[in-house]
Amino acid sequence: MTQLVNDHVRCINTMTDEQLDPTGVKAKFGVPPERIIDYLTLIGDTSDNIPGVPKVGPKTAVKWLDLYGDLDTIIARADEIKGKVGENLRGFLDQIELSRELVTIKCDVELDQSLEQLSLQSPDTDKLRKIYTELEFKTWLRNLDGGDDRDSAHSRDSEADEPSAGTINRDRYETLLELAELEKWIDKLDRAPVYAFDLETDSLDYMQARIVGFSFAVNPGEAAYLPLTHDYPGAPDQINLDKALALFKPLLESPQRKIIGQHFKYDMNVLKRFDIKVPGPAHDTMLESYTLDSTASRHDMDSLSSKHLGHTTITFKELAGTGKNQLTFNQIALEDASAYAAEDADITLRLHQTLGPKLAQLPGPLSIYEEVELPLVPVLSRIECHGVRVDSNLLKIQSGELASAARALEEEAHALADQPFNMASPKQIQEILFTKMEIPVIRKTPKGQPSTAEDVLQELAEKGYRLPELILEHRSLTKLQSTYTDKLPQMVDPDSGRVHTSYHQAVASTGRLSSSDPNLQNIPIRSAEGRRIRQAFIAAPGNQLLAADYSQIELRIMAHLSGDQGLLAAFAEGQDIHRATAAEVFGMLPDQVSSEQRRNAKAINFGLIYGMSAFGLGKQLGIGRGEAQSYIDLYFARYPGVRAYMDETREKARDLGYVETVMGRRLYLPEINARNAQRRQYAERTAINAPMQGTAADLIKRAMIRIDAWLAEQPETIKMIMQVHDELVFELPAEQIEAVRPQIDKLMTDDNPLKVPLEVEIGSGDNWDQAH
User: Fold this and answer.
1) Which of 369, 367, 195, 219 is nearest to 299 (CA)?
2) Among 15, 66, 317, 483, which is most buried by a count of CB atoms within 10 Å?
3) How many Cβ atoms from other residues are within 10 Å of residue 449's Cβ?
4) Beta bridge partners of 195
């Protein structure tokens, strides 16, 4: 910017308040403002990826400009400059004009506005409110409407849904400290057709959280908070927890299901530990939002309130602070806690009143919500609360083995580099690979540095470079150690002796479940190390694990969606689909197909449904792009229905802006018509893949609901304990395995909406690896 400085213009650094006039520019850079363009052309600008003359830094640039006066003279007299740096300059001359153009700030752009129109105007509060709401700038949003007083009237986005009961007034909320007040509210909740309910606890760990209070709402604005165990100094007397639980138990356990919750599964899990078994919510606003638009970035209550009600909620961080000094809810003063908790219930009720009617207008998403997502809540709650047993001793042994293997890789890497370096440091890896070893740079980061991303290292490894291969192996082992073998023993609940994950219904846009603490979905199954970790997931003494996995589910869904006669026939006849594809593509009988041809056909089958290009397929198979393209062409010639489905799906997605699963789950594609080709092509690949992934998710979720209903009629010794991708895992007495196996198979393949049969591979063993 200092190239703009003159007698009338100064450059101000707002971070340091440094101000530069022409004299200041010369003092700082060694050249006056009118030579800054020449100076930058010579040294380049890495922040904008503008190349300079190789090995020419600020000192050399200043020296040349002092000697020759300006860049044009330097160019004209380039032959006079001696040594390697002179050679570099002469070799750079064909690029120098481009660099000069790139560093030059244009000062002659025609503007539609006059200078007077560019003066500071009064803020457009409507536009600001819309922007602040969309981007969740909550403090600025409050300031826009009268400072950061939490009880002030809250703003509304012009596009927000209009809540049914006007603005939110926290002064109307009640805090219940007397038993008589609570009994009146319980009667009110009992008579209400539905009511919002929210639990306040002192922890996010549902297996250890203590109940601090309840909040509930029966109408918009009519909400209350029941504090139970606030114990900060000076906290008022509160109703006894056991007494409150006894009063609420009949209400919460009612089979009528009148509760509206937001992520209510957590509340169910906590209440279960206090002997209150809630059958499930009548509605869950998180799931209503998710089934309406799974591609929305967030489905938490604060975000939904801002988006749909135009209301900025009190956040937990505002009350409790952050970091190591963050308070738990029992330490929050009642006045603040009551406003926060009652607002949660109030907002939850209002969100249901807003989202419910929207969902009712969409038959497909409505059926997914009512028949899949909502009934799945109590199923997942039971799985989570039961947990899974792990062998901590075996995991500790594996941690030692992984650490030892990682050290060996590190030693080999250091020997190859001829020096020690931190294998977790991208900067040090850059220096070793690309500066010291002069390995070709495949891709640069946005800041112009050589990339050390996994796919880059993978490509270098495939080209025969050993060090990138060692770094990748080291990353894999250390990640397994830190994520699983070190961490899992620490996650064993002290009371149950088991690990309890949390399944998330409203994260993956395709409808697949994800899990955290621990993440069960990412334990590798193809590597020996990953399988060893699965060996540490064990059954209780006398029990075994049974694993049931849908076979080639997404290819079956592709056959159904495309209606391709070849694929439909192959699945109907129970053929090995990869062998059948190889026979079609390579023009031979199935029994003539070699193992390599089957492997290639498997790569084609899966690659094409994930939108793999000829380049990607060639890379995976180790063949040229042309040969890979010929495989793809042969595939589509043999399965024309697949090509037609892909073309039709892309076209339909462009028209509608979304795709649907077989059962009606909807996935929106906001960038399907984007001008940016890369984004548009990604959306097109998603359009083809999402119906398959989403239908697979719907199928296994429906199977879980059927199996859970069947288990309710069986001995309590049979438990569903994990869901991972297309697999369900059960724990049961070893002697019951053979009787249960056909039942699980039937329940997972019954009620099949596809035109091809579903198949399930079932195994059993003392641990998860054996069962799989």
Assistant:
1) 369
2) 483
3) 14
4) 259
**Secondary structure letter of residue 763 according to DSSP:** E
Q: Which of 33, 9, 32, 40 is nearest to 104 (CA)?
A: 40
73 CB-contact burial (10 Å; exposed 0-12 / middle 13-18 / buried 19+): middle
441 Cβ neighbours under 8 A, 6+ residues apart: 434, 450, 451
Minimal CA–CA distance to 426: which of 486, 468, 485?
Answer: 468
Phi-psi bin for 600: left (phi > 0), alpha (psi -120 to 50), beta? alpha
Per-residue confidence (pLDDT) for residue 656, from 0 to 100: 94
Q: Which of 178, 248, 180 is nearest to 214 (CA)?
A: 248
Burial class (CB in 10 A: 0-12, 13-18, 19+), 258: middle
The pLDDT tens digits of the residues spanning 47-65 come to: 788 889 998 999 999 999 9
Strands 537-538 and 543-550: unpaired
Using 70 as the pLDDT threshold, list the residues of the chain that sit under it. 145-166
Rg, Å, the chain Cα set: 32
pLDDT in tens, 10-39: 999 888 888 999 999 999 999 999 999 999
Tokens 């009110």: give the residue. 188
Token output for 400: 């030692």
23-34 residues labelled b (16+ CB within 10 A) or e (exposed)? ebbbeebbbbbe
Pseudo-torsion of CA 241, 242, 246, 251, nearest 10°? 30
754/571 Cα distance (integer angstroms): 11
Omega cis (within 30) before 518: yes
Classified as helix, coil or strand, 580 is helix
Q: For the chain, give the number of residues.
A: 772
Phi then psi dihedrals of residue 219, to 5 deg:
-145, 160
Which pLDDT score is estimated for 615?
81
Separation of CA 107 from chain center: 43
**What is the number of other CB atoms lying within 10 angstroms of the CB of residue 646?**
21
Amino acid at site 33: P
Which three-class secondary structure state does DSSP give residue 51? coil
Q: For 127, left (φ over 0), alpha (ψ -120 to 50), or beta?
A: alpha
The pLDDT of residue 758: 95
Give CA–CA dist 69/451, Å, rounded: 38
The rounded distance, in Å, linking the Cα atoms of 534 and 765 is 12
185: number of Cβ within 10 Å: 20
List helix spans (H) across 418-509: 426-430, 454-462, 466-480
Here the tokens at position 242 are 């056991």
Q: What is the pLDDT of residue 147?
A: 46
How far is Cα 92 from Cα 687, in angstroms, rounded to an integer? 46
CA distance 380 to 193: 26
Specify the 3-state DSSP secondary structure of 13.
strand
Give the separation between CA 324 and CA 315, rounded to whole angstroms: 18
How far apart, in whole angstroms, are the C-alpha atoms of residue 160 and residue 563? 42
